[in-house]
From TrEMBL:
<feature type="binding site">
    <location>
        <begin position="46"/>
        <end position="47"/>
    </location>
    <ligand>
        <name>Fe-coproporphyrin III</name>
    </ligand>
</feature>
<dbReference type="InterPro" id="IPR033659">
    <property type="entry name" value="Ferrochelatase_N"/>
</dbReference>
<keyword id="KW-0408">Iron</keyword>
<dbReference type="Pfam" id="PF00762">
    <property type="entry name" value="Ferrochelatase"/>
</dbReference>
<feature type="binding site">
    <location>
        <position position="183"/>
    </location>
    <ligand>
        <name>Fe(2+)</name>
    </ligand>
</feature>
<keyword id="KW-0350">Heme biosynthesis</keyword>
<feature type="binding site" description="axial binding residue">
    <location>
        <position position="13"/>
    </location>
    <ligand>
        <name>Fe-coproporphyrin III</name>
    </ligand>
</feature>
<keyword id="KW-0479">Metal-binding</keyword>
<protein>
    <recommendedName>
        <fullName>Coproporphyrin III ferrochelatase</fullName>
        <ecNumber>4.99.1.9</ecNumber>
    </recommendedName>
</protein>
<comment type="similarity">
    <text>Belongs to the ferrochelatase family.</text>
</comment>
<dbReference type="GO" id="GO:0005737">
    <property type="term" value="C:cytoplasm"/>
</dbReference>
<dbReference type="GO" id="GO:0004325">
    <property type="term" value="F:ferrochelatase activity"/>
</dbReference>
<comment type="function">
    <text>Involved in coproporphyrin-dependent heme b biosynthesis. Catalyzes the insertion of ferrous iron into coproporphyrin III to form Fe-coproporphyrin III.</text>
</comment>
<comment type="pathway">
    <text>Porphyrin-containing compound metabolism; protoheme biosynthesis.</text>
</comment>
<dbReference type="GO" id="GO:0046872">
    <property type="term" value="F:metal ion binding"/>
</dbReference>
<keyword id="KW-0627">Porphyrin biosynthesis</keyword>
<feature type="binding site">
    <location>
        <position position="30"/>
    </location>
    <ligand>
        <name>Fe-coproporphyrin III</name>
    </ligand>
</feature>
Amino acid sequence: MSKPRIGVLVMSYGTPESLDQVEAYYTHIRRGHPPTPEQLKDLTDRYEAIVGGFFPLRENTNKQVQGLEQRLNADHPEFDFVCYQGLKHADPFIEDGVEQMVKDGIEQAVGVVLAPHYSIMSVGGYIKRAQEKAAELGLPIQFVKSYHLHPELIEALSDRVSETLKRFGDTPKDEIRVVFTAHSLPERILEMKDPYPEQLLETSRAIAAKTGVTNWQFGWQSAGQTGVPWLGPDILDVLEKVSTEEQVKHVLVCPIGFVSDHLEVLYDLDIEAQKKAQGLEIHLERTPSLNTDPLYMKTLSDVVFAMCGAQ
């Protein structure tokens, strides 16, 4: 007797695979409007600064999808889990992933986004696209909306904070400002009573409690240049303020909104924020990304499997 097959649509933002794909990728983000030469140069320069033509996000995402499939099948050998990628702004797109599942004869599916915190503008947008395509093709699919307080996720992030604090040597723990960060979104989500900001604070509080960190705050990063206000304060402004107003000289950034190494981590934090910190004579460290950490794979396996009974 064959095991029940369950398709898992693993969704993430996506990234170009090489420098010559940056323009098409940026055009898709801008809803079909090509970037100006200046905008394209700025983004290309950022990629070149971190990777020199090699794009780690795509490789990281591939490994996360493979790791999740292996973990699900190891945790639940009574099922046959098959993971599919669905990317927001690159090939294979979310709709392609759904279509491939149907082509492969999948009759039961679960969707999960590689982002622990829910916003209607982020995770909600992924789910909407997948839901519409699945409905069009007659595929039953359930979705994981968030997993921001899963015990293994908190443990993985807390381990990283504790380990990275050691890089400050003999500096007393209470003299190190821990700044938790996530990708900013337009301020209008506050009027919509979107859960995103509160979920991020809940994760931050849980990590602080587990690690015994009392000197912490939240900051935003990587806001878009869209002409509307985005959530702040930005991490660069946080560094300026804590340095000039509070004489803080040791900062640990923990980007809890990101699960793998990509542009917002490797450029916005490791290059841009680090340069700002050096100018302010701040010792800045960053916690390593989750990538394929076994605790993160366990988190995803748990939340995906929990949705299997919902069908």
